[in-house]
Every structure is written in structure tokens, then in C-alpha cells.
Amino acid sequence: MTTPRPSPAHVGPHHDLRGPGGVGLTIGKTFTFEASHRLNGLHDGHKCGRLHGHSYQVTVELTADELVGPGFVTDFGDLSPFGAYLAEHFDHRDLNEVLDVEPTSELLAVHLVRWFLDQVQPVIAGRLVAVTVSETPKTWARCTVRATT
Ligand SMILES: [Zn+2]
Fold this sequence. Notes:
19% helix, binds zinc ion, 3 helices, alpha+beta, five-stranded mixed beta sheet, Tetrahydropterin Synthase, Chain A, 6-carboxy-5,6,7,8-tetrahydropterin synthase, EC 4.1.2.50, elongated, two-stranded antiparallel ribbon
């Protein structure tokens, strides 16, 4: 006697998470880059007004109602264009030159959400939930994507 195995139909490409007993799934991937910035409009003596650098961490979060392939929200490899964008345009750059807004974590997160929605979202399976930008281990700014229903 062999132990019955689930038929391939149960492990196929369609994993619908909705309906009775429905669950929610979120995945995340963290990217890093090094960059400098200086914030304008602060009172004299504010340390963020001086040119300085951070080891930035950027985390994207995605969700989906239906999984693809072996059971993915999105194949992490499909996020590589986002990593390439960060590496090319942000790594070892002066963010004051890269962005046309003040380079705060908040405004960087908003910029990255908009870029992701425009450039990556259309060609991946999942949908973006949020982008979190962190300049230090203890601080972060999270820009969330409002659901469109
Ligand atoms: Zn800073």
C-alpha cells in the first residue's frame, strides 16, 4: 500500500485565497543602497541640514488573492527591476540631486511607490501594498497603497 498523495490538481497553479476560510498573504523583499542627503528648511543647527549619508533599507510588500506558479504571491525574482532601479539611480548618489522633492524617507517612499506602480506592477502577479524606507535601524517611513475597489 502506498500513501495516497494529493492529485496534481490540488497543487496546481490556482490557489484562490478568497471565500470561506479565506486568508490574506503578504510577502516582502528588502533592498539596500548607500546614499547621501541634506534636508533644507530646518532650523539652524539641525543635524539633518548637514550633508550626511545613510545605509538605506527599502522594503516592498505585496499581496494577492490568488497565488501563481507553485504558490507565489509574486516570484521574488520578478522584483529585480525594482532592485536595478535603486542600484542605478540611488546607490552612492546624492539624493538631493536624484529627487525633485526634499529627500526625506517619507517622500522617498512615495516616489518609490509611484515608480513601482508605474513600472513593475503591470508585469507582476501580485499587487503592491506598501514601500517602507528606513535610514536607521530605529526609524522608517511606510507609504501604503490604497485599495481600488
Ligand atoms: Zn539623513
